[in-house]
Fold each of these.
Amino acid sequence: MTQIALSNLGKKFGSFTALAQMNLTIGDGEFVALLGPSGCGKSTTMNMIAGMVDPTEGDIRFDDRSILDVPMSRRGVGFVFQNYAIFTHMSVRENLAYGLRAQGVSASERNRRVNAMADLLQLSPMLDRRAAGLSVNILQRLAIGRSAVVEPAIFLLDEPLSNVDAAFRSVMRSELKALQRQFSQTLVYVTHDQLEAMTMADRIAVMDHGKLLQVGTPLEIYNNPQDVFVARFIGSPGMNILEGTIASSDEGKLVDLASTGRSAPLALSDRAASQGLPEKVLFGFRPEQVNPDPNGTMALPVNFVERIGARTILHLGGDGIEAKAVLDNQIAMPSIGDILRFSIDPKMVRLFDPVSGIAIGGDI
Amino acid sequence: MNGVSVKKADIAVLPQDNAGSEEKRLGFWLTLPAQCLVLFIAVFPILMQLYISMTDWSPLDGIPWYRAYELWIGFINYTDLASDSRFWAAMWRTFLVMIVCVPIQFLLGLGLAVLFVDEFPGKRWFYSTLLIPMMVVPAVAGYMFFLLFQSGGPVNDLLSLFSASPVKIAWLSDPSLALVAVMAADIWQWTPLMFLILLAGMISVPQDQQMAAVLLGASWGRRFFTIVLPRMKTIIIIALAIRTIEIFKIFDTLYIMTGGGPGVATETISVYIYKVTQQDLIWGYVAAIALAILIVLSVISAIAISKMSKGANAR
Amino acid sequence: MRRSLPFELLRYAMILLIIAISLVPTLWMLSMAFKPIAEWSASGAALTWWPENPTLDNFRFIFGQSSSELIVSLERTAARPIVASLLAAIVGTLIAMTAGTAAAYGLSRFGKGNNLPLALIQLRLFPPMAVMIPLMIMWSFLGLIDNWFGLAVVYGIVTLPFAFWLMKTFFDDMPREIEDAALVEGCTRLRVFAVITLPMMRPALASSALFVFIMNWSDYLIALLLTTRDWVTIPVYMTSLSSSMTGQLYGAKAALGLIAAIPPVILGIAIQKHLVRGLTLGALKE
């Protein structure tokens, strides 16, 4: 039961900066996912929390106590490795008892806790089997149980589902989430798969190139990306971003998208209105928000039609413009070469600064 | 002889698979030279050895070897062997060298591997330097130690630093010390081999398992004894088997240092066979000894081979 | 992981200590090789760790040039044994590598259920001493005693297992797709082997050949058994130096030992990446 605070955390490997200026507080019992493409610094962050890597800047605190001088064997961190790192030369029982034995827990107490953990994780029938050759979901449970049995302050999970085939992942995801509820433990989960982050985490921290870009609940991240990278990264497919210029009309300000057309008048938040708008903006909208409309103010040619069952993805664009639209199958589907006319609900439009990539005006 | 018999490559041809049969034939021709050489040095000589060991033949008798049957004595050589005290003493000495040298080499090699398993500045240089002894020609190594252990040599000179009067130990001519000097040479030359193999094994122990153990609170020692060592089991067995077998072959270093002497004080099994061959010239008897040794070694090597192929498959 | 400074210092201290000990024998012989005759057997207080008057006389001596101090003249110089060692080791290496590479390729590509690999391990494990008698009988029957070629053939056979296993693991590591592509193009197997596989294997062949050469060069026993006079190798010649009536020629032997020791040490360090693979017959790769 621990709160983790990362302040100005940074790591340089020689001249390469793996992580810079990371500030994040993870609440007691919270499930936080560190999400980003490979090389974004998420694993470095996690390894520093565990003590496998020493930071070059900043501090890590568990419940307001700096742990930088605490060796990794004393940090009380339960770590689940990507491939689970099960001790395959031992039995399931020996795996579960390993941490207790290392910490000098008495034999009777050890037995009691191992048996209790095995019951909880439904590992009891295979306690005396060798850990080699167990199936992957049992290995996952064993890896979590092996860490949980020593009652760590926090859990760190490093892409635990990346070696699992796609069909099995949803099963593993729900199992993991259920386990976290059982332990109600602070948990940091590293992944590059947004689906895992979105479905399991309380909050998501999106990272790229060694920087923390945004922290928020899955819905916040999805609805109000604070950064154009987050906007494109989250969602499948990600948010469409078109270059445009601010123009004025009788009904208010709107975005001129050149050959694509022009947007409906913007529904600006008070903050955006008071801040004022730059001349050029990035115009963002979710593919799901594309609303086919014969009277729409925007139009793009259809390049490709991708049918994925219940929904269809249209690849739109030309002349250096690229966008996607996700439509339900009920409506009449345009075909390749057609021009799709559409409109976007002004409330669903997100604007970004083309230079800094930061969202304009926060919530619109 | 387990495994020594060489079967010809299976050239049975599946009629419907023409390309396959051509490949098989090519495979047969490619292995033929090696097969012939093995036949030439292993299978044929061993049969010949078996034949001669049943006779009282000696090159001095003036009968060519293929007519050795004229001196047929059956199993007499083998029964003689059982009561040959010089043979058993040589066996015992070989065994003694083995039980002293192999564990010391193993522990030193393991300790060095622990020192070298992490990255640190200068590692490559230290590593290369440490390997030098095993590259030195064994006969030359024998001469090096012959020089070191002279009564006026550097070993005594170093020992004199710790004693009031100059040390004048006649290492190589003292029957009780000569074997110590021989063992020192073996340990010097072959610890690097242990180190090399054990380090390769230690590096291949998965890093995340070691980290997992540490994160669970394991001390360095617990991690080493419960994760690292058990995971190196196969490699340790291979390393020990190689050294154990090599001890039976120990000859060059020893023969140049002491010639097996003084008297027979450092006569190990290889030196004994050599001496009986060169000096006593009773070759029928030598053939019997050699075959007996071969059988002993085959048992050890059978174990080593099964471990080696397991090790190769695991990779 | 954070490492403590005391531990690092301890690591260096222990490594340096062990290296120092392990270098003493080699350095002592090195020193001996450059000592003049007066310092050879100096002992006790007179013992010097480094030659006080370093000289090349020992090297000159073994090549037949006597000096004012070493007035003994040698019956035979070291030149011929060096040639013998080189010739036998190189030809032995060629034999082992040719037969070993062919067999390794054959078994790596189309060998299933063949006993040869096991037989070769066995061959490596049993002591040459064990087949000494038949070998000597066969070689004298064939007139190959004291003949560099006879020695080279034995070297080739003794080191064949190393050549075979090294090359087999290298062939096993090589992706087959490259060969398959050429086969599909209509090349014959032999052509693929000659034009594609062998050139790709050049570094592997070089390392294996050097490894095998070191083993052949290091032999003493086989040469002791199979050569008598004309084709004795360096180590055999070296021991004969002391049996002359002049007594121990310490410095001369050390100089010769140095000549024998240098090539394998340099070559061994050059191929150290593959030493584990070779010494464990491919069971371990680094």
Note: Chain B touches chain A through 17 residues (CB under 8 Å).
Amino acid sequence: MSDAVIAVSELTRRFGAKTALASVNLSFPRGAVYGLVGANGAGKTTLIKHLLGLLRAESGSVRIFGRDPVADPVGVLSRIGYLSEENDLPGWMRVDELIRYSRAFYPGWDDAFAAELRETFALDPNAKIKTLSKGQKARAGLLIALAYRPELLVLDEPSSGLDPIVRRDILGAVIRTIADEGRTVLFSSHLLEEVEQVADHVTMIRSGTIVLSAPLDAIKESHRVDGRVPTLDEIFVAHAGASDADA
Amino acid sequence: MRSPAAAFAWEFGRRHRWGFIAFVVYFTVLATINVFFLGHRRVDFDNVQTFALAVVVPLATSFIYFLAVFSYGLAGDLAARQSMYPTRLFTLPVTTNALAGWPMFYGSIAMAILWIAFRFLGVWPSDAYLPVIWPMFLGASLLAWTQALTWMSYPLPGLRVIVTVLWLASIDAIVMLALHFKASEAVMLAIVVPHVPLAFLVARFAVARARRGDVPDWSRPFARVRSIADFVTRRNDDFRSAARAQMWFEWRLHGRSLPALVAILLPFELSLLFVFRETPGIVFEILISVLFTPLFMAAFVAATVSKSNLFMTTRPLTSASLVAAKLKATIVSTVVAWLFVLIAIPIGLRLSDTSSIVMDRWHRLLDSFGSPHAIAIVLVVLSALVASTWKQLVHSLYIGMSGREWIAKASVFIALSFLGVLFPFVHWLLRSRVAMAYLWNALPWIAAAFVAIKLSIATWIAARLHDTQLVSDRAIVLGAACWDAIVFAVYALLVWLLPSILFRGYFLALIAILAVPLTRLSAAPLALAWNRHR
């Protein structure tokens, strides 16, 4: 437990009458890719917001690198790279200004890596963020989430609404990150094929409750039917229920 | 709901139900007072302020609210080039006539009801002549033009505001002119009624153009100016610290607004000096309005300064550092805005040849108070204006930083309610010598009570800052020491400037404590942390 990058214990969260998270327990050790899957409204983003300290644990506890993200936002956020579906980069900044601005917050910022990512993603340094396409904005967000080689990369539905090329870039980033020894990725998505491609461990969440959390291979093995290994899609439907899967 | 007409009506009613309910409740109260207590009698208002409070303010507020609601102005960006008509409605299977027509029709009906309700249920002065028909059409035509001009797409950002204000002011001016020449009801109708179909045609054109995505663009001729502005403000070097980076972020995001607004207004204000150079009284009024411009504009800019978003809250900085960056950016913003004012005034006076008027007043001030006091008075007034501008920018920071819409709405409601009570109270106070004397004697006690409240809240905030470790103990102590020093300096200045016969030392100390901001500023990190970690 002490080695866990993410440790969540009995986390419960309510919004009015709705229970968004119910007694969630998680412990993710360092150095793997964790897929967080669930239907829309299942509680994935609420859980991730707790990990970032954007939501306070009403009951239970959340520890990232052994620290409370609410009590020590600087200590936690400076070690996390975060990219969300809700791309909220400041539209008035130019790409090079965004890079310079972000660089100031992270002592471990790698200029060479940032330049390499900018080249790879074909981002014009003089372009204003607001003039970029949705895919280019996602790439800019990914650049500033990766360039300081964070110990934990949190991707909250990063591929939603993006074209296959940008999605490939994002998956490439996940693979790059885990290539660095000891780094951890939490990848939330309802695009199960993507999760299946990169995740070592999958956690399924339904109506705020963890219904399954195990290594992907073990999950597949345990759901083998007549010798056939099911896809993550099929396993998800079996666990989350047809109605959630449709959602 | 089987027709587009019913759907439009339902959306307006459902979305703005609380506003409409408030309107109905207000009129029910007004009608009850008018029918049961006044018996439909006209009232002799004691003064203009009471009339304004009872009639003009509620009518104008309702009118502006209806303008905003029916032109979809509450949700759009007034300064944008794009049409403010909601794009989600463009894909409905209805004609452009229906898209432009139904909101205009319901808006016109609402304006007619507003006037009829005020005309027959409101409390009016006994000597007022109140026509029925043409004001109804005037309201409808002003609304129709507001709709047409806000739904229009424009070639330049901000042009919408200028065009709409100028056009509505022109209609108002024509109506005022007609009233001045005592135009008959028929003439008034002939002036205002044609505006409604004309505005509909313009609105139809605007919606049709917006529906097919046409947005004219005149930005090319301004590209060179924009590239120069970008070059000047562009950041090409690295930041030495996260705090500096965040300060730059705040400056670029909000800091330039106040200096820009002041810089836009100053030439217009100072150009009046050329017109009224022969009238010293008006020259001084113009200069006073120029001096109050930063303070006035800061009230508008303050709402944007206090905003926060997900990008900002996920920066690896403490809440106190994020607030500190905002405070520093507002200080720079205030200083730059005031530099503009202090540079522009002498230039304006020199060019308009009115500096002799100001010098004459300055010599009279020197004669009356002596050099040290006169210089001190001017410096104190200027410092107070600069400090008030900054205070105006940051005093509601804690509300915006909390990120809770209900707190912002409640604070506006409380402020308006307070003003609603304050005006009649002050009006009553000014007429009662006994009450004035009582108040004057009780003033130190009232000030002492406010000081006790302020210091109690400040102590609670300091304890919370300490407990939550949002701010280090050293910073709390240093902040308290700085605040003490400023309070002492203000107190010393007041003692030196004001006659001791009128104001006792302890009273001036209380005033100094109340004048220097403390609680609202120190609450901002707490509010941001509350927002950041919900």
Note: Chain A has a mean pLDDT of 85.
Amino acid sequence: MGARRVLLIAVLAAAVLIGFVAVQNLQVSAVYYLTPTEARDRAVAAGTAARLGGQVEAGSLRYEPQTRELRFVISDGTSRITVIGTGAPPSLLREGAGAVVEGTFAADGTFRATQVIAKHDEVYAPPPPGATPSHRPP
Amino acid sequence: MNLSFADIGAGALRAALPLAIWGIGAAAYAAAKRDGRALASARWAALITFLLVALAALAMVGALVTHDFSIVYVARNNALETPLFFTVISLWAALEGSILLWTTILAGATAYVAWRGTLALPRLATTALAVLFAMCAFFLVLVTTPAADPFIRGEIVPPNGNGPNPLLQNHPLMALHPPLLYLGYVLFSVPFAYAIASLILGEGGDRWLVATRRYALVSWGLLGVGIVAGSWWSYAVLGWGGYWAWDPVENAAIMPWLVATAYLHSVMVEEKRRLLRSWNLSLVIATFALTILGTFLTRSGIVNSVHAFSLSAIGPLLLGYLVAIVVLSVGLLLWRMPMLRDSGSVGAPLSREAVFLFQNVVFVAATLTVLLGTLYPLIAEALGGAQLSIGRPYFDRVEVPLALALLFLMGIGPQLPWHGASRATLERQFTAPIVAAAGGALLAVATELGGAFAVLTYALAAFVAATVVQEFARGVRARRALHGESAGTAFANLLRRNGRRYGGYVVHLGIVLVAVAVATSQSKTIEAEQTVTRGQTFEVAGYTVAFNGLRDVAEPQRDLIVADLTITRGGSEQQLHPAILFFPNATQAVGSPGIAAGPGDDVYTILAAYDTAAHSWATIRVLVIPLVSWLWLGGAVVGLGAVIAALPQPKRREVAHPLIEAPATVGD
């Protein structure tokens, strides 16, 4: 019976430890998915990691080959946010088309993108221009 | 009369549905009354159901090949310009076709159980057959209602279709990876059906488990190889230089694989020690439920992001199916719990069964934490309304330590005897592996592998590899001494005559390769990005990258911008062609990396940006990724080990020494 109890305690201790580590890391790893309007409404703090989804505003896409700085405006028809990226492949973006970028908000209100997210299972359908995002909390 | 492929396919599916429903009743009646005529009827129902569903799948391929755009699925996933190869495999390019393929495999497994399984265990297999028929009926409902009817016709027939999703018509691995996953998912229905049958009949023994061991193993092997093939596809197509992103789609595939791995090991505890009966039933139920949960999560579009995807009508149906499976299975399990008492208990902490117990706990913990990370966005949205995703840090920080714990247990488990180990046994089994582990750690430090986790991975990988080599060496030596065989024959005979044990060791070796590949590629990848004009070169990690210019290429189904690169190191030279692809019906362009794969480094190149006006410059990103090809090799070795373990063993002729075929301390 002694050995059995040792095993049981070890198993339980392992489960508790794993659960604790998981919950701890869950909170720091959450990346919010926002539209520009939501980002504005919530006054997201600088340095917060997020995914920003919307449309690449026509005529806003600029790429500087030597510094490899990428700039464009992402918009949901209501609000617009300037996205600045280095290392985000601009070739995957099209003006007027939908885009999802991952990165962090900077103190000056721009969004520093590190990644353009490629969707690989369905055709991406961006929110239509002018539409209020339907998932907004009431 | 002029029949179209849509008429044939839709008709076949509608004929199959009542047959499958008939089969449920016939098989249940045959099992309850031991009625031979009812069993014969169920068998024919199973065979004809399978033939009809297979006919429907072929009709879909026919409709795709003949570009019958009157069918909505064909119009959405095919175009006149789509190459024949990608036209054929468009059968699984989207939801409806995938469900049709799933139904076909399930009907095939049902027919196989009906004709072969019922011979060995008439009552158990016939009850399982009724369960399988019920699953077939559910999937046939999906493919004959708007939820996932692949043959629905559009109101207008477009002159040309949209073509497959760009990312899915980009690489030949698409032919391999989804069917492997579906085969793995669906074949696990058989162990599940037998487990449920065993609970329904109230059988206390482990006949269901022995009868379905091979199905579970094959399903697990296919799922594992399918997952590696999927990560290879992601690496070769998505153009981010990685192979695993903890995406919900990936998590959906890895979760049932993790639980199935736990099951394949705890099965041995039940066989050898008659322990963990209800636990094994729970693992089978969990694995099966996770295959359905994964399909629900990825197919309903609920997790990926409500922003981005249209919801499919199939979601609620799959959710209902999942809930029904979980409620019925758990209910049955609780009802039969008094019969499932174990005879005896797990012994010393240093016994093989104790290690298997720990291993099971870690595998289940890994599954639950992946599940938590995958479902957390749903929970958070339900509670607070915020949409979020759980990024890589969570999964990396939680799963990497668990993976290392598993690697450790994989090293010690097979080395410990059942019931408990003596000090002499421990010394005999662990001296060489511990020396090897120290060597592995030194190698990691000497090659400047960054991070404690990477060093630990190398040490544990060397530890496990040494235990496997030691097992093979001892087995070969024993056979040579007993049977006077040559080393080669002895090795082959080990694999052939004791495939389950030695095939398992081959699998462990494959996992070691995967672990080394992941640790090395994650900690030592070197990345550089530069804008260059034609003729310019730059250096990355000892490789010289020369940019030779951009080309426009027009293909029937797409346009490409191709960058021509020459990669040189030492005397060897390689041409790479990263590109950006434009498909007429896609909103986003698609990057296509150029990869120089090798046994050591992979050189991975991406065309990040280019001069749209004059084609004079391009921004090239280069990643030098060490040992990533070991990952694909490791997946293949895992598959090979599963095949060795699943092959039927030859009938034994040597009755003289049945007890000393293997070292006595490590019984199989």
Note: The CA atoms of residues 20 and 97 of chain A lie 42 Å apart.
